[in-house]
């Protein structure tokens, strides 16, 4: 997908020759007048189809786990008043964007990759999906960063004034607006083109005659959505780990109390390491793929192009499954709260809002 600034959001075609700059005719001439390019463009489609029975179940698992896990997380946060705090609002926003990512990114990507007619959802859905897909990704990444910063201030500077609910609302609104702004250039260069003779329709991002602008957008997107957030998350959690390691509880403690505190610290350290590792590992393959494609598309084997791109996309989408477990399911109090809520629902004749709720801060 040469010419794409953010190909990981859904584009699934490799290089298309840009012989003119006359709108859709550029793509039509590239396919209709260059049979050699036409054959190389779809050289790896047959290989991709051979992995269909493996890839579709993997994507389906991501959808089921991602939607169910994030929905339950949102359910508990929304239904429990004592969980209505800034940290949990950030986590709820992360869960919502991850759930939306699973619903929009995965089904349309699969259908586009395996349907021999290409994009079959129409022009309107082409632009809508290519808008929603990257927005949800950016929102998830920026929210992960906001959670890390919020936890940094809560742990390293506990005496400072905490973020208010109104400030949290402004931050979340800013995250969504910033994400939409970052997506605008890509949407402006998205084309829905029908090749009637070939029976093929594509929905792709192309920067016709704007190679420098495309590269500037691609690398700035990499910086803003991966390098800087990963650096912020690593720095925040390193400071948290250092603070906890050097934290000494006041008063005299028994051996059992000291061992319990060390066990809690080890658990937090493991959680911090998992959060950083999950964020870095899940998104690394697709960014490496895009950088190699931008440097020289020939660095990626033509026959395996689509398969590699789809596997990298699958790895990135798996982050939506990791987040509910890392930010909620691994917390004992959250699991207890969830069990308590379902127990209350099953009690006959006792309203749910009369059930005792424990104060939980994730």
From TrEMBL:
<dbReference type="InterPro" id="IPR001402">
    <property type="entry name" value="Prolrel_pep_rcpt"/>
</dbReference>
<keyword id="KW-0812">Transmembrane</keyword>
<keyword id="KW-0297">G-protein coupled receptor</keyword>
<keyword id="KW-0675">Receptor</keyword>
<keyword id="KW-0472">Membrane</keyword>
<feature type="transmembrane region" description="Helical">
    <location>
        <begin position="306"/>
        <end position="330"/>
    </location>
</feature>
<dbReference type="GO" id="GO:0043005">
    <property type="term" value="C:neuron projection"/>
</dbReference>
<keyword id="KW-1015">Disulfide bond</keyword>
<feature type="transmembrane region" description="Helical">
    <location>
        <begin position="216"/>
        <end position="240"/>
    </location>
</feature>
<dbReference type="GO" id="GO:0004983">
    <property type="term" value="F:neuropeptide Y receptor activity"/>
</dbReference>
<dbReference type="InterPro" id="IPR000276">
    <property type="entry name" value="GPCR_Rhodpsn"/>
</dbReference>
<comment type="function">
    <text>Receptor for prolactin-releasing peptide (PrRP). Implicated in lactation, regulation of food intake and pain-signal processing.</text>
</comment>
<feature type="transmembrane region" description="Helical">
    <location>
        <begin position="120"/>
        <end position="147"/>
    </location>
</feature>
<protein>
    <recommendedName>
        <fullName>Prolactin-releasing peptide receptor</fullName>
    </recommendedName>
</protein>
<comment type="subunit">
    <text>Interacts through its C-terminal region with the PDZ domain-containing proteins GRIP1, GRIP2 and PICK1. Interacts with PDZ domains 4 and 5 of GRIP1 and with the PDZ domain of PICK1.</text>
</comment>
<keyword id="KW-0325">Glycoprotein</keyword>
<keyword id="KW-1003">Cell membrane</keyword>
<keyword id="KW-1133">Transmembrane helix</keyword>
<feature type="transmembrane region" description="Helical">
    <location>
        <begin position="54"/>
        <end position="77"/>
    </location>
</feature>
<dbReference type="Pfam" id="PF00001">
    <property type="entry name" value="7tm_1"/>
</dbReference>
<feature type="transmembrane region" description="Helical">
    <location>
        <begin position="268"/>
        <end position="286"/>
    </location>
</feature>
<dbReference type="GO" id="GO:0042923">
    <property type="term" value="F:neuropeptide binding"/>
</dbReference>
<feature type="domain" description="G-protein coupled receptors family 1 profile">
    <location>
        <begin position="69"/>
        <end position="327"/>
    </location>
</feature>
<feature type="transmembrane region" description="Helical">
    <location>
        <begin position="89"/>
        <end position="114"/>
    </location>
</feature>
<dbReference type="GO" id="GO:0005886">
    <property type="term" value="C:plasma membrane"/>
</dbReference>
<keyword id="KW-0807">Transducer</keyword>
<feature type="transmembrane region" description="Helical">
    <location>
        <begin position="168"/>
        <end position="188"/>
    </location>
</feature>
<dbReference type="InterPro" id="IPR017452">
    <property type="entry name" value="GPCR_Rhodpsn_7TM"/>
</dbReference>
